[in-house]
Amino acid sequence: MNIKEFESEAEKVVGWMASYFENIEDFPVKARVKPGEIKAGIPAFPPPQSEAFDDIMQDFREKILPGMTHWHNPNFFAYFPGNKSKPSVLAEMITAAMGAQCMSWITSPAATELEERMMEWLRDMIGLPGDFTGVIQDTASTATLCAILTAREKATNFSINKHGFYGQKKFIVYSSKEVHSSIDKAVRIAGLGSENLRKITVDKDFAMIPEALEDTIRLDIDKGYQPLCIISAFGTTGSTAIDPVAAISEISKKYNIWHHVDAAYAGTALICPEYRELAAGADKADSFVFNPHKWMFTNFDCTAYFVRDPEALVNTFSETPEYLRTGEDNEVNNYRDWGIQLGRRFRALKLWFVIRNFGVEGLRQKLRGHMQMAIWLKEQIERSDDFVLMAPVPLNLVCFRYQPDRSLSQGESNALNEKLMHILNDSGKLFMSHTKLNGFFTLRMVIGNTDVNEQHVHQAWDLIRKTARSLNISVITD
């Protein structure tokens, strides 16, 4: 492909993108394919000769697009959104065109310095104090692993990196029973062992009970174990439950334990000052993570990871062979030393585009709109005779279930709601996911898509009620 062909084909691709943005609601939200169906339509062997770009795009439309779940359809209410926005997409196009590998300052000075400034912007936007320093990671899973590894090395004066675990105490990590699965994985990867992750009891709102946390810490100390890290959740995945961060911060200081705040999804809400009280105490934590790629309309992947002690982070990960040494190393941040990856994408550019194009007030207006729609849905469920709200709604996730007959057993209720979810999702008109709260199969409806509006939420609620009330309960529960 020469430059003229590139320019011509690029215009067609951008035209398709604009059409996709405009007509995305015409696609079924959830892909209607069976396992193996897409692969079966792709030749088993690569083409020996060049193929026309028009043919490639035609196959994309006919063979790939039907197998895609459309995350940015405003009727996508499942999981947490992996959002995008038009300025973010444009920035990603520029990033792809430049193809920079931004592992150190010298490999792209602007990428490093823009990242420094963007992390300062984000820190101030969510109300963290100025002694926090930030770095962009790929995902919150990686950032949390970095927090646990840094806690491990700081607690042992960086000796495990050098000598391994020989002669060390048993290290313990603490989180709530509503912990995200990435915590379990991080504990294993860090070499601490799954049995050394303590999952603390939660209250009726699914938030960690600080008294239970402190009791568990004391028991571990009495056994000769070393408490290493506490992970509090500002918005759990299941229900956006908010742990009492301030009380947990006090406990972490009392016992000299690293405190990491996992605000992967909900941290974006802190852009709105009226929600910062929910995260009181986060300013006392050792590290904090949230994902602009979830609710801040920035393409995946882009995770903001903040630490109070960047020296401990760098000492945990720094590894500089001779071929990476430069004359500027003592004057700049080389972000390859701030995490696991050596290679790094130019993620700061899309943050810059998004924040400038929306403006902080524009972002706040979007977020407040989402939370108002969630409040509306919560009120509809509370007024309903046959739906039950399953958890508080502090932000924009609504957890509920269909309960037309109060005499249904838990198993019958679970079967009914699972059937309801599958029917709704298979319709292609919306997409929801589920969790289990107190053993009940619970529908999760996240109102956080970039382009979702009140009409989408009202239509979804109408469809949910109509579909639920059309179910033959006796068939499902027999």
Structure description:
With 478 residues, this protein is an alpha/beta fold. It has three domains: 3-68, dopa decarboxylase, N-terminal domain; 93-358, Aspartate Aminotransferase, domain 2 (3-Layer(aba) Sandwich); 360-477, Aspartate Aminotransferase, domain 1 (Alpha-Beta Complex), CATH 3.90.1150. It is built from 17 helices and eleven strands. It has helices at 3-23, 37-40, 53-64, 86-98, 109-126, 140-155, 159-163, 181-189, 210-222, 245-254, 292-295, 310-317, 348-358, 360-383, 410-426, 454-469, 473-477; strands at 133-137, 171-176, 197-200, 226-233, 258-262, 287-290, 303-307, 387-389, 397-402, 433-437, 440-446. The strands form two sheets. A seven-stranded mixed sheet has the order 1-7-6-5-4-2-3, with helices on both faces. Helix 4 (86-98) runs antiparallel to helix 13 (348-358) and helix 6 crosses helix 8 (181-189). 42% of the residues are buried. The mean pLDDT is 92.
Entry summary:
By secondary structure, the chain is of the alpha/beta class. The protein is 43% helix and 12% strand.
Find the count of extended strands (DSSP E, 2+ residues): 11
Q: How many domains make up the 3D coordinates? A: 3
Q: Please report which band the strand proportion falls in: under 5%, 5-15%, 15-25%, 25-35%, 35-45% or over 45%.
A: 5-15%
Report the radius of gyration as a whole number of Å: 24 Å
Strand order of the largest sheet: 1-7-6-5-4-2-3
Mean pLDDT, as a whole number?
Answer: 92
CATH topology of the largest domain: Aspartate Aminotransferase, domain 2
Structural class: alpha/beta
Helix count equals: 17
Main sheet specs: 7 strands, mixed
Low-confidence stretches: none
Shape field: globular
